[in-house]
Amino acid sequence: MKKIVLAASLVALFSMTAFAEDAPGLKADKAPPPPHKMDDGYRGMEDARTMTVKQAKALHDGASVSLRGNLVERESGDIYLFRDKTDQLQVYIPMAMFDGKSVSPDELVGISGSLDKKQQPARVRVTHFQKQ
């Protein structure tokens, strides 16, 4: 009797997956391709539409911006001077955004955040920081 119950429960256990529907969401049965083999998809700030500092300064208060350039100097606390080929702009980058990385002025960085024109001069409050 125990063998019949055991056999029936094993058959029921393994047949449940056959009746399962293909539900939406992540299917973890395959490994993802390595980053250098990806053709499409989100790969960080490289995919974001970048703009120049000059274009960013012309936007309205609170606009989302994505910039690529250099952190030239630290002005005070978490305020840095960011420069690209068109102009320069103050950016507010909390120390936690650096995630223990150090950046020198000759290294290219990508930032994105919101434009704060209420401050004089205007500055960007950085929400994403990436060392290129």
Poorly predicted ranges: 21-28, 38-43
- By secondary-structure content and strand pairing, the structural class works out as alpha+beta
Would you tell me the overall average pLDDT? 77
CATH topology of the domain at 53-131: OB fold (Dihydrolipoamide Acetyltransferase, E2P)
Rounded radius of gyration (Å): 25 Å
Q: Identify the CATH class of the domain at 53-131.
A: Mainly Beta
Q: Give the terminus-to-terminus CA distance.
A: 67 Å
Q: Which strand order do you get reading across the main beta sheet?
A: 1-2-3-5-4
The share of residues in helices is: 10-25%
Model description:
The chain has about 130 residues and is of the alpha+beta class. The chain has a domain at about 55-130: Bacterial OB-fold (OB fold (Dihydrolipoamide Acetyltransferase, E2P), Beta Barrel), CATH 2.40.50. It is about 15% helix and about 30% strand. The chain has helices spanning about 1-20, 55, and strands at about 65-75, 80-85, 90, 110-115, 125-130. Strands 1-2-3-5-4 form a five-stranded mixed β-barrel. Strand 2 (about 80-85) and strand 3 form a beta hairpin. It is elongated. The protein starts with a helix and ends with a strand. Mean pLDDT is about 75; it is low at about 20-30 and about 40-45.
